[in-house]
């Protein structure tokens, strides 16, 4: 199963093109990085892959078929700010079980403590919340994960902890990962190859 | 001379549960740290370690339900509420973490001018905007019109034009381009080299190491180590505290390994060493009482077994 973006371009209305002719192919189990200065549409491109936005031109295919319009999306995305991605009026167990019920093994791997499940989002730190967002994105039907500055706000230890959990799951399930980060050393550590977003115009 | 001294600071919040039970959240415990003129001190720790609250305590902007003990001195004299009121924004400036610190109803150019203590506020503001690559059109924008990166650069500008002697910067860099980060950090360096001082609060030990002199490592509301940047080499043999060693080893360019578990919550701190539940070399003694900060090899450490 592959994730393929072909000649993808995006702009708002008649505005200037944010990017055009972006071609990215992600194989199962492959970890690919994207670099490039901010404000050039990397996040928008990620949102297109995850189905939150439609490309203005070009196509995105998973396993040769267009992205599904309904049901569980095979491409899941985790963002920089977990506070913005969790419903403040839900306790954590509800946040966690929104899409599926993660098993104990996954929670342990991510270092999520049982006692956190009864808390409100504002009672957890950014690093604790982000583990929930990752768990939520790793449903059994996730084929590709997009990590958009996922650990930028986290300390080195939490960053390593979360990435190790993701890498071991990716290996087990042959899940592909797209990593967007400013941190070149993290990129080098994680990725099989790196694409420069600047190459596209 | 120390420009800022924090001695034995503790901060806690009272909270009531559904059963009217009172819980005490100890967010900062027995923290001591000093900032010298000409120096950049990084305060490094995980999110939720109480780092931002330290900044707020120094500037006297903690919420009203906080109870505080300990002393904070500026230029050798205690910072009372009255003294703070005259110094805040003039000699002591904050680069806040949240964009919500900007006045939503005021154009950003005017906000930066209000913060300036120079003769010609307009040219001071324009100069600082130019330095942070904020175009002329930004002057007349309102905060909601700014992108995240622009808002951060505006916050930086506000502190930089104030002419402050001490800048406390709370996570000033995330979300900025590496180029802008480098520039902001080198501006802090320049600022310190003029005899001022910067306290850089960050989760990012790597960028802290690039420009600071000294690093204070924060864990669960207190400093566990104060070390010189020079100590962060190799496998971290020169580092004193097990948590600092773990942070260093976890960097992607080092071993990229993590220690299990997580920081204790302020409502349920362990009785002894706050790091004991995660410490590989903990002994029963560590769980007896919180270790004191002590001097060790030109640095400070809060660990009874550190050598
Ligand atoms: S005092 Fe004990 S538990 Fe705490 S860091 Fe030192 S060895 Fe570990």
Question: Which helices and strands, and how do they pair?
Answer:
The complex is a heterodimer of chains A (about 200) and B (about 300).
Chain A: E1 3-10, E2 19-26, E3 31-35, H1 42-49, E4 57-62, E5 65-66, E6 75-78, H2 92-96, H3 104-109, H4 126-137, E7 144-148, H5 156-173, E8 176-180, H6 184-190, E9 193-196
Parallel strand pairs in A: 3-8, 3-9, 6-7, 7-8
Antiparallel strand pairs in A: 1-2, 1-4, 4-5
Chain B: E1 2-16, E2 22-36, E3 40-45, H1 51-58, E4 66-74, E5 77-78, H2 81-87, E6 92-95, H3 108-115, H4 121-131, H5 148-161, E7 166-170, H6 178-193, E8 197-202, H7 205-211, E9 214-219, E10 222-228, H8 242-250, E11 294-296, E12 299-301
Parallel strand pairs in B: 3-8, 3-9, 6-7, 7-8
Antiparallel strand pairs in B: 1-2, 1-4, 4-5, 9-10, 10-12, 11-12
Helix pairs in contact in B: 3-4, 3-5, 4-5
The structure holds iron/sulfur cluster.
Iron/sulfur cluster (SF4) binds next to loops of chain B.
């Amino acid at each position: 199963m592959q994730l393929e973006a072909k000649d993808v371009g995006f702009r708002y209305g008649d505005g200037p093109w944010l990017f055009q002719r972006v071609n990215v192919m992600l194989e199962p189990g492959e970890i690919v990085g994207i670099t490039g200065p901010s404000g050039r549409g990397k996040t928008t491109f990620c949102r297109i892959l995850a189905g939150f936005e439609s490309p203005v031109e070009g196509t995105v295919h998973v396993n040769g078929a267009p992205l599904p319009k309904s049901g569980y999306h095979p491409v899941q995305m985790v963002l920089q700010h977990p506070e913005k991605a969790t419903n403040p009026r839900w306790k954590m167990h509800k946040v966690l079980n929104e899409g599926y019920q993660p098993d104990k093994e996954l929670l342990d791997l991510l270092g999520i403590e049982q006692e956190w499940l009864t808390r409100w989002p504002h009672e957890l730190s950014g690093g604790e919340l982000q583990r929930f967002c990752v768990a939520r994105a790793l449903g059994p039907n996730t084929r590709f994960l997009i990590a958009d500055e996922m650990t930028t706000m986290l300390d080195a230890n939490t960053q390593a902890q979360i990435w190790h959990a993701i890498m071991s799951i990716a290996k087990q399930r042959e899940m592909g990962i797209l990593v967007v980060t400013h941190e070149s050393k993290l990129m080098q550590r994680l990725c099989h190859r790196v694409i420069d977003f600047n190459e596209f115009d | 001379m120390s420009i800022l001294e924090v001695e034995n600071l503790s901060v806690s919040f009272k909270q009531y549960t559904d059963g009217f039970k009172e819980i005490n959240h100890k967010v900062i415990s027995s923290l001591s740290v000093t900032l010298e003129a000409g120096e950049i001190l990084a305060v490094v720790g995980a999110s939720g370690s109480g780092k931002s609250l330290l900044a707020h305590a120094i500037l006297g902007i903690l919420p009203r339900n906080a109870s505080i003990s300990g002393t904070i001195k500026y230029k050798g004299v205690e910072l009372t509420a009255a003294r703070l009121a005259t110094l805040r924004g003039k000699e002591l400036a904050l680069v806040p973490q949240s964009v919500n610190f900007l006045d939503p109803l005021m154009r950003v150019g005017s906000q930066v001018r209000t913060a300036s203590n120079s003769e010609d506020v307009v040219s001071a503001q324009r100069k600082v905007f130019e330095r942070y690559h904020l175009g002329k059109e930004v002057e007349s924008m309102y905060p909601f019109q700014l992108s995240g990166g622009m808002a951060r650069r505006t916050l930086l500008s506000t502190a930089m034009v104030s002419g402050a002697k001490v800048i406390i910067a709370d996570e000033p860099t995330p979300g900025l381009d590496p180029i802008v980060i480098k520039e902001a950090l080198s501006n802090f360096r320049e600022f310190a080299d003029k005899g001022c001082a910067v306290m850089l609060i960050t989760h990012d030990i790597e960028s802290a190491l690039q420009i600071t002199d000294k690093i204070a490592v924060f864990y669960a509301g207190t400093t566990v180590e104060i070390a010189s940047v020079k100590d962060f080499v190799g496998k971290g043999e020169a580092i004193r505290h097990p948590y600092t060693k773990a942070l260093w080893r976890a960097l992607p360019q080092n071993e990229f390994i993590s220690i299990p578990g997580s920081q204790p919550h302020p409502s349920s701190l362990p009785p002894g060493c706050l790091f004991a539940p995660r410490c590989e070399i903990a002994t029963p003694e560590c769980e007896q009482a919180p270790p004191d900060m002590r001097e060790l090899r030109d640095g400070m450490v809060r660990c009874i077994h550190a050598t």
